[in-house]
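::Amino acid chain::
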Amino acid sequence: MPRTRQTIAVAGVGDLGKYICEELLTSSDFSVIVLSRVSTHAWCSERGIPVYMTDYTSASVLSILNTTHARATISFINIATPLYIEVHASLLAACQKSHTCKRLIPSEWIADSETYPLKPDYYASTRDPFRKMLRGQDEVEWTLFNPGWLADYFLPRGKTYISPIPDKFPVDPNGWRACIRGSGEEMQSWTCGREIGRAVVELCRAEEWENVTYVAGEWSTFNAAVRVMESYYVTGRLLPITHKPVEDIQGSLKMHAKNGDDDFEALELAQVEEMMIMEYMACPKEKTMRQQQKYFADLKFSGLEQLLTYAEGVVFV
């Protein structure tokens, strides 16, 4: 007798969410639906993924969860304003009232959120209040899923679903340049999107969740990453490197704090740079490795050099 697949609802697919959807599709244990503000989604249609239109009120989401008998909701709705709280409160309320959907992964997808719960700064007014809502209830099981940097940022355009962010991420493989913040020796961690997708599938199989879940393909530094890129991609061709010292980053943060301006992009860049130099984006190694054995023992996570080697042999990662 065929095994009944559990339905997983994905809210706001985005780039990383596409990997989760694809890995759920390839699993024999799950099916996937997508919640969206629009009724048509070409990427989903091409893969036969049902799209359910919602305005993200709790009543709207609840109707979808009950109709599809979803067992878990995974959010990729990344909002940098308090609207994040409103949307995720609706997801939580829908799960609480749902007949079947009693698991929630909210949109965090950051790194060491336990040591640095209020970083980047806009998490203090968006993620942290919702985390308190999660901790204040026991009807819905939840976890904050943190993979560190997306290693796909090291890949050339067209090899990955993850859109490049050359102004924020220190290494730009498409423009073949690097901008190192701080010394470049600060510890970071990164994981590729496809392997994050596989890890999320494994977590959906787990009988119980911890409140924070980490994965990491590698712990390294951006200086080391530059050396790997130079030796792998174009032998003998060095990456042109510029540097942004800690003092400049701290000065930018102080300027934004003093002026209170509305230039969110510049403020966000300064906050991301602060995360680099303060090692916020390095997942805690001991806990990550423990959880790898607990939840992901059957998975392999790639370091940068392994990812580059694999990417060279395939059309798309």
Q: What stands out?
A: The mean pLDDT is 96.
